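Before relying on records like the one below, remember that each one covers exactly one chain. Contacts with other chains, cofactors or solvent are not represented anywhere in the record.
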Amino acid sequence: MDWEAGWLGRLVGPEADGSIEGLVLGLAGVAILLVLALYVAAQVRANSTKQEPTASDLLTKFREMYHQGVLSDSEYRTIRTTLSPRIKHELTDEQKTG
């Protein structure tokens, strides 16, 4: 890498004059990038939790599909059995939170 080229070489390379100004600029850049990364991570996390339907919502949709004839009786029973523990957990959580 050619340290003489670019702003990074002037800040940290052999050409750096050792000034506090370069250090402050470098740390400010790192801080800005860190804050930006944390913001993006928080947004992604918030969106991923919003997109997941509850077990009750899923069961409602599957029930509609069953009544429309899209799902067989055995498929619907399997789905309902699979979602039952999750629904019970959601109800328990709702009772605890209020």
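The chain has two domains: 6-51, 55-97.
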